[in-house]
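Data deposition worksheet. Section B asks for the primary sequence of the deposited chain exactly as it was used as input, without tags or linkers unless they were present during the calculation. Section C holds the resulting structure in token form. Section D is free text for depositor observations; keep each observation to a single sentence. Incomplete worksheets are returned to the depositor.
Section A, Depositor: J.P.
Section B:
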Amino acid sequence: MQVTYQNQPEDIFALLHALSWRERVAAYLQVFGLGHCIWPVALLLIVLGEWAILQWIAAFVGLFLLYYTYIYARNWWQLPPQVHIIPGELQIRLTTDFLEAITQRGYSRRRWTAISKIVDLPNHLVIYVQAYRYLAIPKKYFTSPEQAQEFLARLTQLQAAALSGPMPSLDWEEFRRDFNLDQFSLIKHLQWKPNPQLSARIDTLGIDKDGTQSLPTIWGLIGQLIFPGFLALFLFFLKRSSSSDGLYTSFTLHYTLLMLAILFAFIFGMQLYTYLRYRKALARQTTLQRPNQLWFYQEGVGTITEDTLSFHFWKTLGSVEQDRDAIVLQEAPPFVYAIVPKSSFTSPEEEEVIRERMQQCYINAHETVQEAILAETANEAIVADLIDNPFRSPPTTPP
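Section C:
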């Protein structure tokens, strides 16, 4: 059984409406993680009795939360400026062992155990294929409502059967033959051991090309408390020992030291927030499915995870970036397609060659220069770049 359809930007609403209220609230509450940046400052001001400054900060935080709430709620009835959808036709096949997808982006084969949830909406069928990754099938592409219900019933049946039956094997050679990947030019097969710490670090801090970003540690966080703690104690005892008639020392000195203490307390809060995000990302690595093998073709990239085989063309992938510890293949933001540790290469020279080849394949696939022959004679051809000319006409063949 199969269905062929196309997605429009408006289908993003189906993905949002497929979320449960618990998931919607959890996504909204993520913003409160930023409270780790604020509470050290608030605690400092409470201890020092600086209520006026605390009120200003509370007002700023309140305005920010109002604006964030407005933006979050607006997404439910207004599309964001940039919407990433899979272009062109998508074909979904239901087989006994796998859910298969054929798109202009590439091909994929997933075990049914990888399908976490199926949601039946009035105008769409939404299939959860990964955490925060969905397929939204508009029901208008079925010939009748009865066919849509039959497709849904088959989906549900195959998903339920996979939970009790043996898991089918994922074989790259079979996938390669079935999707005719032999027509492409294989450059390199890469395989590596999973590195949860590396993946969690990139998820938390992003790609670190220059090696300038470091993750905070417990001892580092404790060390960051020494200087603002000393300043806070100094200001506290100075305020307690000063007369109420004059400004215990000088107005300028007091608020200079106070602003310095606030700055260091805020930096500590930011570092604490980063550390907690890293620990959360590290714990999440056990549930994420990251590829540990990659087939590097001139035309695209194939990968395998615990439950999925896939091949994606370079034209639909993001850029190839160099991290201090890995080659990172990006997908549509904010997703990372693959993280290839540099330790999987036999030498730095091999890693550099493979990375440069990947970057060149990406550049070639995303090349946007359009040329047309405007005039042709026996001795020469006049070729013009049309990409920046808003008044260009469609090229015509000379008579």
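Section D:
The chain has three domains: 1-168, 170-175+183-194+290-386, 199-287.
The longest strand covers residues 124-130.
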